[in-house]
Write a structure and sequence with these properties.
By secondary structure, the protein is mainly β. A hairpin with a 2-residue loop joins β4 and β5. The protein is built from ten helices and 44 strands. The strands form ten sheets. Strands 1, 2, 7, 8, 20, 21 and 22 form a seven-stranded antiparallel sheet that branches. A seven-stranded mixed sheet has the order 23-39-24-25-37-38-40.
Length: 632
């Protein structure tokens, strides 16, 4: 077919013939956007192929052919339209009949008047359709015999040929609703009339939204029919063309399959990796990726290692089959005890560091020694120093010996009841949880029976995961349970070795490939433990799941001893890295200082003043610069 404008093609298109393949003959570029404006495509190149799948009517612009004025109506407009035969009106009925004879039209003729007419029988309102059937003599003069159709009956009216209009001729037939009127061929050259609109003659210009598929476009492309582009229909010669439509893993997850699905990676999200697994480097463009289905169960546990200077972080699947044993939790301060305290669950701890009380004067406060056993009861407030209330933990001091008989137990119980102590939240003592639990738990049982966070030790590795990295660590901290859908996938070289991908955080762009993966020779081996990068781990910690975690602990008490320690640290921290200071004593007992200058020369200088305490760290301000010494 010859190239036509997109608007003309869509207006003449039969929706039942979709889909249709179009080739762009003259491209268009809209400067406002490279790709889309308001969700519509505005950039098409010459030669692009478009597979039109659906057209949707957006609105209809009604234009006055005389003045060029326009109004817009919605597709749900309830008015009815009648088709006019010409663009001009007639002043009298005689002019209407004369024009009909010139165009060799036969009676009857359908027409209407844009003004109200008064006859012997009744008043004819404006825009009322009439049918002129014949011309006959009535009361000694020529009259036009017209028929007026009403709901109740048909009335015959005799109008003189000199009856003034203006009159408009319209095609015979009942007025039609908007959607039917738009189906007329040659719509752009037709005139319509509608009593509900202000003009007696108008042109209907519909505007459609064309929904199409294009190469390498992940979503349906929406093109306005008014886009100034010429197209030609190449459906007959394009049956062999396959439009590649990218698919995100999140979209495959949302549509629920069908699985298994063979795909090819088109694009990997930019940014740092989220896992430290070997398969991450294999996720490259062109690599075949088999999607086996949804991972089960849908929950994971965020795990961090204990007992190392630099902790490592893992995400452990709910399908992990290793056995775990609970470990006593460690609490660096009383504030950490507050975070672990839960109603209905006793928390007993043992002090692992002495606490002197920091000089707080209150009868309820006490000192702690290493080995003291406490049961944390609740959080409260107490009257502290300087007349201010401070938050404290109310604890019960426990006896080291169990009662030997009933009387001793009652006495110990009375003594214990009276021995309640208060620990300020800034208490610098450290604690370890007291427990006696040697059971071996599965991960699911542990999550069900105990609250997180929880410290454990893996005592039996996952038999289905030979490279289980968790058993060598002396301790693990189970931090949070995360419920998020994962997809079980594998790569082309070894389809039986599977791993799990979270589309929320690793949303690959793929394209469906032909064929389906064959059934694996044996059971699928799915990795249940994935090590996380630090950046991804801390991004997970910002999720709403971690809102119940306690915030960082407050600063410690600002007592006299704390101020002395801090002052000593500040003075010690004033020494620079390129100035290594040592003390030497000569025969007279006078201290000297030596340091390495930038010129790598060893210089000695007698102190002008001997400090009272020779072990006291000398302030950096007392040191003279190398340039000053050189000048001496």
């Amino acid at each position: 077919m010859e190239p036509v404008s997109l608007q003309d093609f869509v207006c003449a298109l039969d929706p039942s013939s979709l889909p249709r393949v179009l080739r762009v003959c003259s491209g268009v570029y809209f400067q406002g956007s490279i790709y889309e404006i308001s969700g519509n495509e505005c950039c098409l190149s010459t030669g692009d192929l478009i597979k039109v799948t659906q057209i949707c009517l957006q609105k209809v612009v009604c234009e006055n052919p005389r003045t060029g004025q326009t109004i817009e109506i919605a597709p749900t407009f309830h008015g009815h339209f009648s088709r006019l035969t010409g663009p001009q009106s007639y002043g009298t009925l005689e002019e209407l009949l004369s024009a009909a004879r010139q165009h060799c039209k036969e009676l009857p003729i359908c027409f209407m008047s844009t003004r109200r007419m008064t006859t012997e029988a009744r008043v004819v309102p404006e825009d009322q359709p009439l049918m002129l059937e014949d011309v006959e003599i009535y009361h000694g003069a020529y009259h036009a015999r017209c028929v007026l159709h009403t709901k109740a009956q048909q009335l015959v009216l005799h109008l003189p040929l000199s009856q003034k209009g203006p009159f408009w001729e319209w095609e015979p037939g009942a007025p039609r609703p908007l959607l039917q009127a738009l189906q007329d061929p040659g719509l752009n050259n037709l005139l319509f009339t509608c009593p509900a609109l202000p003009w007696h003659a108008l042109i209907l210009r519909p505007q459609y939204e064309v929904q199409a598929v294009m190469h390498m476009r992940r979503t349906i492309v929406k093109i306005p029919s008014t886009l100034e582009v010429d197209v030609e229909d190449v459906t007959a010669s394009s049956q062999h063309i396959h439009f590649i439509q990218p698919l995100l893993l999140s979209e495959a997850l949302a549509r629920g399959g069908p699985f298994p699905l063979t795909t090819e990676i088109l694009e990997v999200p930019e940014g740092p990796p989220i896992f430290l697994s070997p398969w991450v480097g294999s996720l490259q463009k062109g690599q075949s990726l088999y999607i086996h289905g949804l991972a089960s169960p849908p929950w994971r546990v965020l795990v961090s290692t204990k007992g190392r200077k630099v902790p490592r972080h893992f995400m452990v699947s709910g399908a992990y089959q290793g056995k775990l044993r609970r470990r006593p939790r460690e609490f660096p301060s009383a504030y950490d005890l507050l975070g672990a305290l839960q109603s209905g669950q006793p928390l007993r701890v043992v002090a692992t560091k002495d606490y002197e009380g920091d000089g707080v004067e209150s009868p309820g406060f006490t000192s702690l020694a290493v080995g003291d056993r406490l049961e944390v009861l609740r959080c409260g407030q107490a009257h502290g120093a300087e007349g201010r209330d401070i938050e404290v933990l109310v604890c019960q001091r426990l006896s080291d010996q169990a009662g030997e008989d009933e009387e001793e137990e009652e006495e110990d119980y009375q003594e214990i009841d009276e021995d309640q102590i208060l620990l300020p939240l800034y208490c610098s003592s450290s604690f370890v949880e007291e427990m006696n639990d040697g059971r071996r738990y599965s991960l699911e049982d542990l999550i069900t029976q105990f609250s997180l966070p929880c410290e454990v030790k893996v005592v039996a590795k996952d038999s289905g995961h030979p490279a289980d990295p968790l058993p060598p660590f002396p301790g693990l901290r189970l931090e949070e349970k995360i419920t998020e859908p994962f997809l079980v996938v594998s790569l082309d070289p070894n389809p039986a070795v599977c791993f799990e991908i979270p589309p929320r955080w690793l949303d690959l762009s793929v394209v469906e490939a032909e064929g389906q993966p064959g059934p694996p020779a044996g059971p699928l081996s799915v990795a249940t433990v994935e090590e996380l990068t630090d950046a991804f781990y801390y991004s997970l910690r910002r999720l709403p799941n971690f809102e119940n975690q306690p915030p960082p602990r407050p600063p410690k008490s600002q007592g006299l001893s704390g101020q002395k320690k801090r002052s000593g640290k500040e003075k010690g921290g004033q020494m620079t890295t390129n100035m290594i200071t040592k003390r030497y004593l000569n025969n007279s007992g006078i201290p000297f200082r030596c340091w390495r200058s930038p010129a790598s020369q060893l210089l000695l200088r007698r102190e002008s003043e001997i400090p009272a305490n020779r072990d006291e760290t000398v302030d950096k301000t007392s040191l003279r610069s190398d340039n000053h010494l050189d000048s001496k």
